[in-house]
Amino acid sequence: MKVPEFGTLQMVRANESHYGIGGITSLNDIKDKTGLLHTTEKEGKKTFQDYLLDAMETVNNQQLEVDGLSEKIMTNPDEVDIHDVTIAMSKARMSLNLAQTVIDRLITDWNEITTTR
Prior knowledge:
Blueprint: H1 48-75, H2 82-115
Helix pairs in contact: 1-2
């Protein structure tokens, strides 16, 4: 089969349903049959995307909390306990390292999946 979008590239596909309709569609436009990409509101199930967004929001909130505490300790050191600042900084650093590790693993695994033949 010759695909006009790719010039002279010849592609052989085993199943006609794999031919596609051409063009790139957004993930938000895809109707996922497995339910992994979109939340079904009536069932209240969370998707993988929702879990990732919640985790990133938690990491962001921890970073913002550390910024607020470090600003308070500089402006009014009597109001904030240094131990709270140290604990918040450690929690934020650990969650950021964990998020970076998860992102690296996802990218590595995705590259491995896409290059598997």
